[in-house]
Amino acid sequence: IDLLVNNAGLNITARSWTDLTPEGVQQVIDGNLASAFYCSMAVLPMMRAQGGGLLLHTASMAGRFVTPLSGASYTAVKHGVVAMSHSLNMEECGNGIRSTVMCPGEVNTPILDKRPNKLSEAQRAEMVQPEDCANLVRYIASQPAHVCINEVLITPTRNRSYLAAMGRKL
Question: Taking Cα atoms as reference points, which of 12, 50, 14 lies closest to residue 31?
C-alpha cells in the first residue's frame, strides 16, 4: 500500500452540548477519529516494511477552528484527526512515511444534509466541490517521496465562516 486516503466522516444533527447524547457522540467519534486511527494502524506495518508511503486524512476547518456550526463532538474529533496526522509525521518520518491532513471548509457533499438548517442549491454551488478535493488529493499524492505536505486548508472563495465572523450576509 503506497497511499491511504482516510476520507470517512459524518456528523449528527444534534450538535450543541444541551442536545448531545452519548450514542450520538460515540457515532461521531467512531465515524471520524476511530476509523482513521484503525485504518492508519493497519497500513503502517506494510509501509514501514516497504520504506515509505503516504497517509492522507480529511479533517475539517473544524479541526483547526472552533465554531458552534460544526458542533462540539465533530469539532473535537476533527482536532483529533489533525493531531493524529502530525503525530504520524513525528514518529514515522524516519521510516519514509508521510502524513497529510486536509482541512476543508464547506464541501458540497451529503454530510451537509445533517445540518440543522438546510442550505439552498445556490449556496451549495458556491462551496468547494468533491472534484476540487479530488484534485488536491491527486496533487498531494503526486509529490516526490522527499516532500511532505503536512497540512492544507481548502475553502470556498465565498467563505461563509468568514462572512459570519464579519457579521455579513451569508
Answer: 12
